[in-house]
Predict the 3D structure of the following.
Amino acid sequence: MADKEIPLIQAKKTTEKDVLLDPNGFFVIEVDRKTIRVEYYSNVYKNKRIVSGILQKVFTGTSADALSDTIASHVPPLRPEHYLYLGRELQKAQLAFEHQKKYIQGGC
Amino acid sequence: MTDDLYPWGGEFTTCSPHGCVAVVLLNIQYTPPESIAIYGPLKTENIGIEKIIANVISNPFIRYLVLCGEDIRGHRSGASLVALHKNGIDQNHRIIDALGAIPYIENLHQEAIKRFQDQLTIINLLGVTQKDHIDAVITDCNQKAPPSFGAPYIAIRIKPQATVTLTDNRALHSRIIIDYLGNIKKRGM
């Protein structure tokens, strides 16, 4: 008999159709020879559907941690899963930048 | 230099600043000759198209936009770009008669689109993937040697924001004693 039971939860990827888009916008990440470039857009809705974005800010840097910190302090609060997604993608972008490989932004 | 000529930035390669050709790549592995001004991929029928427009009308020497490769399924980004050049956008900012799913232009004014239509001639090679064919079209454009369109049109400028980094800890944590004449008498931690 244990004093306390802690839940052990098996990870499961959210399917694409169940991903909730962030009402506070989205990011476009690009990597070139000199920098990692992150564009932040607010959503544009037509008929209650996100169809595009208005460019609000552009961030540049060469490391995922600096970009993460800077972005977090310069954009409106995001959904938790959006922060986590952004962190993953920035790390991928940093790897691509360091090894001068092609970076393709992944989906949520 | 690149930032001035192509102010929005993006995933493109620059070549000759006075080249008269920009090449848009759709699902194609192709490296154009160095004589052209700029080339890069097009992916989306909204922001992707906007970036191309902003980054070609900023360089008045670019007078031809060559689209080559296979169009993006679903997005139909290449066909949407052709439609934008031909028809413009409606009051809802949708590219008129575009085949893409979400062909909305939200970051550019009508004036920028008009400039794009006036400055550029579209060479529609959608469906063409043969290097020799594309090279020959580019050579033909170069031989026409059209004049510059005039002043650059800057649709979007990314302005660096000033940041201050204080590295001297004393400036943040010192206790400064100033005498009655305003001179620093003592600086202590």
About this structure: The longest strand of chain B covers residues 21-26. Strands of chain B lie at 13-14, 21-26, 38-41, 64-69, 121-126, 175-178, 184-188. Residues 63 and 120 of chain B are 5 Å apart (CA to CA).
